[in-house]
Write a structure and sequence with these properties.
11% of the residues lie in helices and 39% in strands. By secondary structure, it is mostly beta strands. It has a domain of 189 residues: Oxidoreductase, molybdopterin-binding domain (Sulfite Oxidase, Chain A, domain 2, Alpha-Beta Complex), CATH 3.90.420. It has a 5-stranded antiparallel sheet, with no helix packed on it. Strands 5-4-13-8-9 form a 5-stranded mixed sheet. Strands 6, 7, 10, 11 and 12 form a 5-stranded antiparallel sheet that branches. The longest helix is centred in the N-terminal third of the chain and has 10 residues. It is globular, with a radius of gyration of 22 Å.
């Protein structure tokens, strides 16, 4: 049972249609797709990706037809090089402010307790540029929990931060000195100890593909993509703050906030995912229109959709069993669609009552950097 489910997931989207008749727990729900439906192309087509070396295979929203994104269609980001690692010689070091530094081979990690999580991973730069709207995907990730490994390493009393280093490197200039920097990201010790974090070696039932961090990456459910360090090489516990490029210089959100008649500039390192939704596609079946989309980033209570300047209408959320870190699919029938051009906007509302911000909300409008762009998305369609 377990292995047949894994085989099926590994085959990706093509297999989904064929197998929806088999009632496994994984398939006990239907994606909001109808037989014979046609997708109406968005009028605002996405500009071509100008940095194909950095961002690969962005998600095509209009092709969305399954909760799980097949591995070969899952977007990938590589800021430096794309390492090709020999699993036979690879090892993961755990050290720094620890009493018992450890080293693990891939086999040793695989022999440890295994856990799976379905997690929607979004790049915090997604929707920060007109061409970048497909920096998101959902996979069933498997690996071994990180926290027990940190415990076994016996963290020193002054251990405060945990830095995750990848194998990829790039040249950087730090205060006029040229250095070769390892890709790195850190978390507070408390965040790193979160039981959800996995040292992940499997994606949708197959070994982690090279583009996604083979042999092992961090999966930090609930965090933006940048925290999920690929091609892991070393985990280092530190007593002071890590200030590498992707923690303290890049992936830093700058906001301008009014304060006492003046301006307070707030800089923060990109961290946890934010409440967001998008309309993915408009479909037509036998003359009937439907809007289909996704929502993620926080526990979703409701999704509302607005057509042109009309009222906000509550969409139907498909009750999937994918767990708290997976996106939700929603749909709204559009029975009275009139010929001509229309706009479609969605907004997600979380269980705490927070509403996905509009584009002119100060949270978005006073943001001077492109990261963490979770404002409402409007698409254009012609009926
Ligand atoms: N080592 C390493 N890890 C990395 C990156 C990277 O460039 N190097 N990119 C990060 C960014 S910006 C994102 S959005 C996610 C993307 O994960 P994916 O390529 O599996 O989609 O990986 C993160 N982990
Ligand atoms: Mo990213």
């Amino acid at each position: 049972m377990e292995s047949s489910r894994r085989d099926f997931v590994g085959q990706g989207g093509a297999a989904l249609g064929a197998l929806t008749l088999i009632n496994t727990p994984f398939l006990a729900h239907a994606f909001p797709t109808r037989k014979g439906e046609e997708v109406l192309p968005w009028l605002d087509q996405t500009p071509e990706n100008p940095v194909p070396d950095v961002v690969r295979t962005p998600l095509e929203w209009q092709e969305l037809d399954s909760w799980i994104t097949p591995n070969d269609k899952f977007f990938a980001v590589g800021h430096y090089n794309w390492p090709v690692i020999d699993a036979q010689t690879w090892a993961l070091e755990v050290g720094g402010r620890t009493a018992r530094p450890l080293t693990f081979t891939l086999d040793q990690l695989r022999a440890r307790p295994r856990r799976e999580v379905v997690f929607t991973l979004e790049c915090s730069g997604n929707h920060g540029f007109p061409w970048f709207v497909g920096g998101i995907g959902t996979a069933r990730w498997a690996g071994t929990p990180l926290a027990p490994i940190l415990e076994e390493a016996q963290i020193a009393d002054d251990g405060r931060e945990v830095v995750f280093f990848g194998t990829d490197q790039g040249e950087e200039e730090v205060h006029e000195t040229k250095i070769v920097e390892d890709f790195g990201r850190s978390m507070s010790l408390a965040d790193a100890m979160n039981p959800d974090n996995l040292l992940c070696y499997e994606m949708n039932g197959v070994p982690l593909p090279e583009a996604h961090g083979f042999p092992v990456r961090l999966i930090a459910p609930g965090w933006f993509g940048i925290a999920n360090v690929k091609w892991l090489k070393r985990i280092e516990v530190r007593s002071s703050r890590y200030m590498g490029r992707f923690m303290a210089k890049d992936y830093v959100t700058l906001r301008e906030e009014p304060q006492d008649g003046g301006t307070a500039w707030r800089q923060s390192s990109v961290g946890r995912a934010l409440l967001k939704s998008v309309p993915a596609k408009v479909t037509r079946t036998d003359g009937q229109h439907r809007i289909v989309g996704a929502a993620w980033g926080a526990p979703i209570e409701r999704v509302e959709v607005r057509i042109d300047d009309g009222p906000w209408q509550t969409a139907t959320i498909d009750q999937s069993e994918q767990g708290p870190f997976a996106w939700k699919m929603w749909s709204l029938d559009w029975p009275d669609a009139t010929p001509g051009e229309h706009t479609v906007t969605s907004r997600a509302i979380d269980t705490a009552g927070n509403v996905q911000p509009t584009q002119d909300d100060p949270l978005i409008a006073n943001k001077h950097t492109y990261w963490e762009s979770n404002g409402q998305v409007t698409r254009h369609v012609s009926i």
